[in-house]
Amino acid sequence: MENTKQKLIQDIENLLNSYDGIQNSIINPELLKCMDETSLKEIISDLLTQKENVVASNLEYLEQFKKY
After folding, report:
1. Which of 1, 25, 29, 58 could form a disulfide with 16 if both were Cys (CB 3.0 to 4.6 A apart)?
2. Alpha-carbon Rg of the chain, whole angstroms?
3. Angle CA 57–61–64, to nearest 5
4. What's the CA gap between 66 and 53, in Å, rounded?
């Protein structure tokens, strides 16, 4: 597997493992070998969007406790 794909897979694992309280995930590189760089980048983009949505949701929730 080429270096770029390995880096992308590592980025995906890092994103998956960035959530608190969740057991670390390890992606089987054999599973992702058949995926091209574009597909791996789409997975990263989807994970980042999901993470942004969680942060935005948490901020909305915390805003209700803000004193004016």
Report:
1. 25
2. 16
3. 145
4. 20
